[in-house]
Amino acid sequence: MPVGAPSRFPLAAVRGVRLGVACAGIRKPGRRDLVILELAPGSRVAARFTRNAFCAAPVAVAREHLAAAPGGIRYLLVNTGNANAGTGARGMQDARACCQELASLGAVAEQAVLPFSTGVIGEPLPVERVTGGMPEALAALDAEAWEAAAEGIMTTDTRPKGASRRVRIGTVEVTVSGIAKGAGMIRPDMATMLAFVATDAEVAQPVLDGIVARAVDGSFNCITIDGDTSTNDACVLVATGRAGAPAIASADDPAAALLERAVHEVCLELAQAIIRDGEGATKFVTVAVSAGADHAECRRVAYAVAESPLVKTALFASDPNWGRILAAVGRAGVPGLEVGRVGIRLNDVVIVSNGARDPAYTEAAGQRAMAAEEILIAIDLARGAAGATVWTTDLSHDYVRINAEYRT
Amino acid sequence: MPVGAPSRFPLAAVRGVRLGVACAGIRKPGRRDLVILELAPGSRVAARFTRNAFCAAPVAVAREHLAAAPGGIRYLLVNTGNANAGTGARGMQDARACCQELASLGAVAEQAVLPFSTGVIGEPLPVERVTGGMPEALAALDAEAWEAAAEGIMTTDTRPKGASRRVRIGTVEVTVSGIAKGAGMIRPDMATMLAFVATDAEVAQPVLDGIVARAVDGSFNCITIDGDTSTNDACVLVATGRAGAPAIASADDPAAALLERAVHEVCLELAQAIIRDGEGATKFVTVAVSAGADHAECRRVAYAVAESPLVKTALFASDPNWGRILAAVGRAGVPGLEVGRVGIRLNDVVIVSNGARDPAYTEAAGQRAMAAEEILIAIDLARGAAGATVWTTDLSHDYVRINAEYRT
Question: Do B310 and A185 touch (CB under 8 A)?
Fold first, then answer.
């Protein structure tokens, strides 16, 4: 059961982007598992990829193609059901073969295709099924098909994820729309599982690179479901320039800040949607650490709490077992932490002050706070001015069931 | 259901140590929850404690007393049901009050008592119940009561844990016996939840300090159930000197090495017993990393695999989803790892060679290996001569159930 309201569809169309979906039978028949995004000529593309050393073959190929032709990308090709990771030299050949086939069908260069795969790791990609589904997906290309595409990239997700913003640049309204998939193996390290965001603004490549980097750091890089960084994470930002708005040539252009804000909001909404639909999630949890000496130690504390199995099972049980939060703070490796000054709040309930149970705290108040579907864990380190926020879920029976049964 | 055979009781008695147990009703009535170990005068004591910044009050008091009188410790006082952690100044007073009462009953100095608590964090210690149980425990003191004491320190453990070794020093046989508790919040950082090991050898304090440090690093500090380091971890090593064997005055004495080996074996057997009885455990898993550049990176890889929820749920499902192992290796932060050289074995089945699925690997062979109750995950980094081994469990429905229901 996902937490909170689903994403609102339809998304606003982005001029210069069309999306097509097919059932290619990659892992199971009759399931939308192949998505193509067609980009207008002249679109610029920026991306962040996983830092997992075992990055998947499509990640390696996408990096290579993007480096060769960042202004020449015409297709994003996405399959689910198979991650094409841990597949060695054959995996690279398979990813290239898929790009070649789509390039041939679309009459573009092989480097104009960026491939993305998600699903089971370590099994050979069924290339003929991927290529066999391409004509159906190309025939379906439609500027309005964002919801179908959001469904087409799902694996264990229970609902499609999308977000849109509009922003005025000069006299022209431009659109930012994006879709993402998540559900498990989520602790992005540069980007999340898969997210595709597009705008019809016209943006110079260095500006676009900066926007995607900062937007990802402030959104997908602040979430965790299980602390496992995927081999296939990628977040792509496309700027088609087809809205007819004035070009954003420099990061100093005030329009750059406006657009960046819209992109950041779309990414944050997608990142939080991933958490709300995390495997087995019954809670949406914000861990906000404040008054730390620096951002890095605040992040360490936030992640130690957000990834503690004991905190997560207490959240699942709606049990205000705040001692587990305190224990996680204590092991996060903050040098010289004065535990006698630390404060912890659950929503508006002060549970710990000066490192021990607050005198006014009652178990009933704690239970009321923990019973909510959306919970803020606010941790005050009382030693500086830095802060960090991380979003996460609880750890439920369904998380174990989903991941124990994943391949069966 | 714990994995493998239970500990063998009775343990060999240690001359100079008597143990007494009582039902003090600390959390629930009718449960053995108070244990006293009485040490002969002149015993020497060495210990390692948790590095969690929020260490419990009894840990702080035990550290203080041990520093004041390492050669004058006469009682170890252990209660379950309440950890006396996150209890601030009152917790310190409560821990001291318990020591004072036992010191008074035993006619020793307050510093001669080391207190230990385990159980729920953040609730005040019911001091009167602890002190109220002391006469019963003192009346029960018996050199043969190791099994009762091992039961008395259990919390969510399903069975008592103990181990013994004998070793000849000069012409005299000395004994090393120990007990431990574990079950959850287990990723020791200097020591595990609670372990008490005693020998009747006579050992100089610096030699004893060195032995406990190395024995803990090679045993309790190599296990993880859920990656959560407890606020109350402690491992105590007692040397009563009552066997009548020649004193071990220096680390260069060959007898020091003999004794250290016996202590290490007892600690390792106890550490592995904790894993075998880990919360919800259905598998006993050894993660052995070899051919790394240094010990630290081997440990990082071993812990990344051992603590990955996705690897652990696959182990629970007996699913040879080795892609998850590979993904965990990839995100462990090994600088410059050549993924194309990495090898992974499950028991005797080679699953990954040169970074991809081994040509001879079959799913049937993988499934056979994963179906075993005891599983070796051997990871070859192919870049050096260092190694590290970590022991862990799977992540089962019962882990979630136990920890969601812990306080109810």
Answer: yes
Checking if the pLDDT of B312 tops 50, the result is yes
Q: Is residue B173 part of a domain?
A: yes
| Total domain count, chain B | 2
Touching B: A residues 338-357, CB under 8 Å: 339-340, 352, 354-357
- Among B246, B276, B306, the domain boundary falls at B276
Q: Judge whether B254 lies within some domain.
A: yes
Do A225 and A293 sit in the same domain of this protein? no
Query: Is B120 part of the contact surface with chain A (CB cutoff 8 Å)?
Result: yes
Instruction: Identify the active-site residue in B50, B118, B192, B286.
Output: B192
ipTM: 0.74
pLDDT at site A121: 83
Q: Whose CA is closest to B187, among B348, B365, B392?
A: B392
Clarify whether B158 is annotated catalytic: no
Domain range for A188 is 17-276
Q: Which residues of A are catalytic?
A: 192
Cβ contact A355–B227 (<8 Å): no
For position B304, which CATH number holds? 3.10.20.340
Together in a domain, A115 and A142:
yes
Residue A355 has a CB neighbour count (10 Å cut-off) of 23
**Residues B22 and B147 occupy one common structural domain:** yes
Mean pLDDT of B266-270: 89
- Residues in chain B with CB shorter than 8 Å from the CB of A310 are 184-185, 226, 228, 403
pLDDT band, residue B172 (cuts 50/70/90): very high
User: How confident is chain A (408 residues) per 10-residue block, as mean pLDDT?
Assistant: 86 94 94 95 90 87 92 93 90 97 97 92 93 98 96 89 91 92 65 77 91 86 73 84 92 92 90 85 93 94 91 90 88 88 94 91 92 94 93 87 71
Question: Whole-prediction pTM value?
Answer: 0.80
Q: Which residues pair with A161 in a beta bridge?
A: A180
Cα dihedral sign, A112-A118-A120-A122: positive
Q: Report yes or no: A125 at the B interface, CB cutoff 8 Å.
A: no
Considering the domain boundaries, does residue B12 fall inside one? no
pLDDT tens sequence across B69-122: 878 999 999 999 999 988 889 999 999 999 999 999 999 999 999 999 998 888
State the DSSP code for B179: E
Nearest Cα of chain B lies from the Cα of A52 at a distance, in angstroms, of: 5
Q: Across the interface, do A331 and B51 touch by the CB < 8 Å criterion? A: yes
